[in-house]
Amino acid sequence: MADGELAPDPREAHDPAGFIERLQALKDWSGLTYRELSSRAEAVGDVLPRSTVGNMLARTTVPREELLTAFVRACGAGPEALENWLTVRKELAVRGYYAGAAAAAGGVGEGAGGAGVPDGSARPGADAGTGAGADAGADAGGSGSGGSSGFGRSGAGREAAAAGDAGSLAPAADGRGTDAGTPAPGPRRTRWRVLVPVVAVLALVIAALSVVAFVRGDDTDHVRQRAARVTAPAAGSVDVRAVHSGLCLNERRGQRSGQVYQVPCAGAVVPRYSLVPLSGGLWRLHSDHPDYGPGCSGIPVEAVEQDGAPLMDQECGKRGPREAFRIEPFPDPAQGYRIRSAHSELCLEVRDASAEPWTDVVQRACDDDTGAGQLFSFDRR
């Protein structure tokens, strides 16, 4: 926050969208990242996950009271400011419109009591009642007119008619119809009705057995072949797999540092990665963390030129060009791709080319001979 700059005033917002804009302005005023806000909230006993803050600022409805309280406190606003935020939030949650500032100036009149609410403001009770009544009326009207006009025949009517038709050909005591040489039609229809579901069930069983046979017999080879293949970089969601180990890049859940390791690909979901193309043939590796929200992979600012500096996921934009990478084949694309920092010209490497899970990923001098531990595949999700 700039010295002497006043915090945004929530009373300047008169609808939920404006309230969210003021919340975003409050975050900008604080100068804190999502991770820093989460840490500050945790330090005073509040719960404020990074992803929750991102979702709150992307919505068009007011947040829950406890979430708003934790966020405003973390941003550095005082008790009086917090009270203003809660007052405006309550008004918007109930009415969808805030007129407190105007009312205090004597310019609202009936608006504060409801008559001055602008057209289109939320009125959940009235809308819900009207909608339910209209739907119920339409359902009742449709049912009545359908029954009286005789337009078409309902399912129940068709069954009744079928039962009546069958009754005219009811089987005799010996199980045959009135015509001794003709079977009664009712039982024949029953047999078909039973036979069709049976055939359908058998088809499903056969299909399921085929899938099981495929999974047990061929799936291992399929997975092995997929792991052996190397996939070129392309925009979109990917698993970044180390070719030498077959393990994928990921974080350790619950660890705030954002340090990146290699882990078994089946569990590589913290975070989910995607490649985003930049100008000049460069790439950015975006991360979507279940706890901390969106971010980018990069090298810490203080260690950007350091051999052995860690690869870490942090909030995008905090490290500038240190989040940009050049992805290049080595030397044949079938062998894998190197990820070279556009800032330091060092290459990402699974430390010491280890094949062990939870080995950290660092930047090292590029190995032009073997590329040991520095070759990756970008498997499509």
Could you give a short description of this structure?
The chain is 39% helix and 17% strand.
Question: What's the helix-strand series?
Answer: HHHHHHHHHHEEEEEEEEEEEE
- Percent of residues in helices: 25-40%
Number of strands: 12
What is the third-level CATH name, the topology of the domain at 230-380?
Answer: Trefoil (Acidic Fibroblast Growth Factor, subunit A)
Query: What is the topology, as strand order, of the major beta sheet?
Result: 7-6-5-4-1-12
End-to-end distance: 41 Å
Identify the CATH class of the domain at 230-380.
Mainly Beta
Oligomer state of the chains in this structure: single chain
Given as residue ranges, the uncertain stretches (5+ residues, pLDDT < 50) are 101-192, 211-226
CATH architecture of the domain at 230-380: Trefoil
Strand content: 15-25%
Q: Radius of gyration, rounded?
A: 33 Å
Content-based structural category: alpha+beta
Task: Kindly report the average pLDDT value.
Answer: 74
| Biggest sheet features | 6 strands, antiparallel
Please tell me what the overall shape is: globular
Give the topology, please:
Elements: H1 16-30, H2 34-43, H3 50-58, H4 65-75, H5 79-95, H6 100-104, H7 124-149, H8 155-167, H9 185-217, H10 219-228, E1 236-242, E2 248-250, E3 261-263, E4 272-277, E5 283-289, E6 293-298, E7 312-314, E8 325-330, E9 332-341, E10 347-350, E11 359-364, E12 376-380
Antiparallel strand pairs: 1-4, 1-12, 2-3, 3-11, 4-5, 5-6, 6-7, 8-9, 10-11
Helix pairs in contact: 2-3, 2-4, 4-5
